[in-house]
Structures are given as structure tokens and as C-alpha cells.
Amino acid sequence: MAAKFWRDRRGGITVLAATMLPALIGMAGLATEYGNALMVRSKTQRIADAAAFSGAMAYSSNASTDALNAAVSRIATLNGILSSAAVGSLVTSPTNDGNQAVQVTVTSSAPLGLSQILGTSSQISVTSTALAELKPNGWACIIALNGSGTGVTLSGSTAVTASSCAVSSNASVAAPNGTSITSPIVTYNSSTAPSSTTIANIHAPSGGTLAISKKATSDRLNTNTTITGEASHLTSVALLTSPSAPSPPSATNLAFNNSPASFSQGGCQFNLSGSTWTGTCSGNGPFNFNTVTLHGGLTVNFNVSGSTSAVYNFNGNIDGSSGTAINFGPGTYNISGGIIVGGGMTMSFKAGTFNIGKLASTCNSATGYSICNSGTSLSFLGSSTFVMAGGIYSAGNSILTLGTTAVGLTSPTSNSFNIGKAGDGNSLVVSGGAKTTFADATGTGDVFKMAGNLTSAGGSCLVVSAATDHDINGSIATAGGAYFGAGTYSVTGYVAAGVGGGGDVTCQVNGTSGSLGMTGSGVTFGIAASSTPSSGSCSGAAFCVASGYGHVNLTAPTSGSLTGLVVMGPTTSTNTAGATFAEGSSGTSLSGVFYLPYGPVTLSGAANVGNGTGQCLELIGSQITLSGGTALASTCTGLGDGTTGTTIVLVQ
Predict the structure, then answer these.
(1) Pairing between strand 318-320 and 461-464?
(2) Phi and psi for 191 in degrees, rounded to 5?
(3) Residue 118 to residue 391: CA distance in whole angstroms
């Protein structure tokens, strides 16, 4: 009976089918889902291709990454996917030809059906990537936009070198004997062609070919939203005024002498030991005083270990014109009459908020200064907020540090500066030999505002904060070494290095010492030129480098809305202030777009201008004139805002 049972094959097929059916269903499902995934991938690839091409067109039109991303998002939305599913970026083309490309990655999903029997997932991710290369058709990097008069004019042993980009003029091109233009493409739009002499002095780069043609060059930046936005912002900066002075309550003057050896005032206890006064204040106050004065030879330590929440009111000034040192603790300081540091005095404050009014006395031969520093040093140590009704003056050989931790150490990043102006129109004056440092203002809510001019004299060292925006309702005029932290500088007046003489100085920046002229990395200068220098080589200029400066290096931001823009001059035809490079200003390096559409650019006196290694200068002016042994060079290989056209090619 048992043997018969084991020999019985009935129902075997059913068992086998039941065993194999899930696998068969899964295999069929995998085949079906694979085909469906290929269809989804084909669709996402088409979307990625279209988005990359559209993003490249948008970027080619106005050199804006915001426009690029907006175009990519529109293509995604039009094709029924979330805009967040399509991510665009500007990259180096994988063809290794040095051009830029727009890369778009699209992420989608394919649903799973039968194959779910083999797993728990209901869908699989599908990703497609496309790259559209921006191939320049002779990008113009030296551009003269004015359609009348002279366009690009050389004289007196001068040279223009643009080996990988075009030189373009809407008027004439003049290169007499003794001068040279090196470029693969030169265009003009004057009624007559360049003279035979000029043509003979235009050369193709080594191994290249030369094309000279009559062609109009358009200003493709005049509607750029970044540039028009900065022009609009400059209008608001012109409305900046000085902050109001604090109004603390009236109290009693606080005088530190050799006697008595102990006293109480304003809620604080003061004790003298040897030549040092020590003040201790209980709680957070407010602690109220009038004017503070110090007798010669004495040091005061004023609640140096006090609470950061303490409030100190001074209905008058803090006068450190005599004595040895005053050291203040952290807290909020409301000082209606300003701060004076003189003689061999040092004065320091720990981190806090400083609301400072104006001095009643003159400083720098003018009234209206909040800080008059002619002592050894005045330091505010730590992340702080500064609101000053007047300007800041730092005399020769004095040191002023606002927001730094200590000399040579990394500065805190959260500081805020709202500086008014003195009666002479200055927000900051740094005299010869003085060293002044503003710590970075890159924290949330931090500002950098000046209601007047920022000036420095020959032999001085100036370090300006990094900040998102530097709003200056006045001019920047430096004659010593100046380091500008990253960010936008919106200047209603002019920007000049050497307008009053001076030149490079050995300075210490972030702990490193070296020769400093005018340096800024990741900076954009937006210049309204509501005022210009009235005399000298810089007369009438919106931007000027003179006085033999040999270390000028300004590099545009590499991210954000102002990517690639290093200097922007007046953008209205009624303001024709231009740029001047003069008096042997050698080694000027400008990397980015230098844009003065209505102002002439002039190089004279053996000046030379170029861009940094591996970087790019696109110089745009109404006219471009070189004389007196000057040189202008650009190593650009392609620009998103070029004016001679571009070809967009899908390369991947």
C-alpha cells in the first residue's frame, strides 16, 4: 500500500506549479517593470535635455544663475514634474575645451506592479542627466560701446592682448605703429574701416587666424536684472543718514585720580591699589555716569568680569586722553558724548553693543566724530554691534580694532556696523601709519552701513569686514593698503586707490604680513559716481587706480546673484564718469566683468591691467584708450554675457 502511494504521481504538476508560480510571476514582472523603467528614463532624459538647453540659453542671455535655474524649473513644470525634481548647475564642460556647460539632473520614479512579489518597494528611482555646453563664437572681452567718436584707441608703445576672445568697438579701432592688438577677432562699426597701419598692427595669437569685420556690438548687460537691481539699490543707499545719538540719564562725573583710594558711584564700587583702579558693579544695572576722565599714570579695570547683560549709561564722553589704560567689561554701552583716546593710552572693551553719540570737541579739525583715537590702541574684543551717530578717526600710528578677538587671531564673524558721519562728511578716516580693522559682519541680521566717506592716508593699513552688503553713502578713497572683505560694496560716490598719493604698504591681514595695495576676493563694487575726484590723475573718475600701486587684486564672487561682476559703474547715460589707471599703477588684476557702459576707460603712465591666473576680465566701457606704455590683457576663453554670439550644444 505504501509503495503504491509513493508511485502515485497525481497532483505533482499542481504542487510544482504552485511552487514555481511566484517566481514565474516575478520574472515576468521584472521584464515588464524593466521595460516601463526604460520608458520613464527616456522621458526624464528628454526633460533633462530640454531643461539643460533652456537653462543654457537663459544663462547665455544675461549671465545669471538665477535665470538659469528659473528656466530649468519652467521646463520641469511644463512636463508635469515638480520643479525640485530638476536640479541645474553651471559646470566645466566634460569636453575639456575650457567652456562652461549647464548640467541638469532630473529624478523621477517608475511604479512597480507584479515584481512587488519579490520585494516591498512600490517604485524605483530613475535619474537622467544632460549637459549643454556654451560654445563661444568669439566672445568679446574688450568692448567699447560708444557708437561715436573713438572706440578702441592705442598710442605710444601700448598693447592690448586678448588671445582667446574678441576686441569689439562700436566706433573706430586705432592702433598706430608702435602699438599692437593681439586677438583672433576684432570688430568695428565706424563708417570707415581701420587704416592699413592699424590692420598691420593687429595680430592673431600664435597658431591662430585673424578675422577683422564691421559689426555692431550690443550691450547685453543693460537689462540684466542683477545690474538693474544694484542700480536701484544704490538709489536707496543715497538716502542713508547718521543714526541718532543715545540719550542716557544725567548722573555724576566719574573721575579716577590718586585719591580717595575708594568710592562708590552709579551702583559700582571702585578701589585703588598702587596705580590701578578696579571697579565692580553688582547685577545688570543700568549703571549711570556722566563724563569719565582718568589722571595720568593710572590704569582702570572697569567691571571687566561683569555680566554680558549689564547696561552702562554715560551722559557725556569717555575721555582717555591721559592715563595709562582703561579696560571695560562686556555689556551694552550708551555713550552720548563719544570716545577719546590720546597720548600713550590704550582702551579696550569686551564684546557688547555700543551706541555712541558725537564728541562736543573737534577731532581731525572737524566736529561730529564719535571716536577720536590718537592713542596707542582702542580695541573692541569679540562679536559686537556698533551704532554711531558720528564718524571714526584713527590718527597716525594708532591701532583701532572693532570686533576682533586679538591681534593675529581669527575675527568673530557676527558683528554689525552702522556708522554715521562727521561734519567733514567722513564716516571713517585712517591717518598715515594707523592700522584699523573691522571684523567680519556675516551673522544673521548683521549690517555694514556708512553714512559718509571711507578714507585712508598713505602708510596706513585698513581691513574692512566681509559682509553681504556694504552700503556707503559716500566715496572710498584709499592711499595706503586696503583689504576689502567679501561682499557687495554699494558706493554712491567714487572708488579710488591713490587719489591723494600713497601706495602699497606692508600690512598684516588675518595673521599674514605682506605688501598690500587694494585687495578683495569675492567682491563687487557698485558705483553710482554721484561725486568724483576734482583734481589729479583720478579727476572725474568713478573708479581709479593711481600713485604707482603695484598690488591691486579684485576678484568677483563665484556664487550668488552677482557672480562674475567685479565693478559696475553708473548705468545712466547722463553720468559718464569712467575708469582711470594711471601713474605707473602696475600689476592691477581685475577678475570678472568690469562694466562702465557710459564711461570711458583710460590707461596712461605705464599702467597695466589684466586678470588673475586662470581667471577672466571682461572690460566694458564707452571708449577704451591706452597711452604712454600701458598694457591691457584678458585671458578669457568664453563669457556668459559676451556680445558676439554663442552656440549651445548638448554634449552629454
Answers:
(1) unpaired
(2) -70, -25
(3) 75
Residue 107's contacts (CB-CB under 8 Å, 6 or more residues apart) are 44, 85, 87, 125, 126, 127
For the ranges 59-68, 86-95, 622-631, which has the lowest average pLDDT? 59-68
**pLDDT tens for each residue of 619-632:** 999 999 999 999 99
Tally Cβ neighbours within 10 Å of residue 160.
26
Residue in 179, 36, 8 with CA at minimum distance from that of residue 109:
36
Contact 440, 415 (CB under 8 A): yes
Bridge partner list, 513: 508
Using DSSP, state whether 629 is helix, strand or coil.
Answer: coil
Number of neighbouring beta carbons within 10 Å of residue 407? 13
**What 3-state class would DSSP assign to 285?**
coil
Residue 259: helix, strand or coil by DSSP? Answer: coil
Residue 7 one-letter amino acid: R
pLDDT tens by residue, 131-155: 988 765 557 899 999 998 889 999 9
Distance between CA atoms of residues 621 and 603, nearest Å: 12
b/e sequence 89-127, b meaning 16+ C-beta within 10 Å: ebeebeeeeebbbbbbbbbbbbebeebeeeeeeeebebe
- Give the closest residue to 552 by CA, choosing from 513, 512, 519: 519
φ, ψ (nearest 5 deg) of residue 72: -60, -45
Query: What pLDDT, on a 0 to 100 scale, did the predictor assign at position 279?
Result: 97
Q: H or E element: which one contains 57?
A: helix 12-62
Instruction: Find the range with the poorest average confidence among 181-195, 259-273, 394-408, 411-425.
Output: 394-408
User: Sign of the C-alpha dihedral, residues 537, 538, 540, 543?
Assistant: positive
Q: Give the pTM.
A: 0.78
Residue 309 banded pLDDT, cuts 50, 70, 90: very high
Question: What single-letter amino acid sits at 397?
Answer: N
Sequential DSSP letters for 91-134? EE-TT-SS-EEEEEEEEEEEE-SGGGGG-S-SEEEEEEEEEEEE
Residue 257: pLDDT band with limits 50, 70, 90: very high
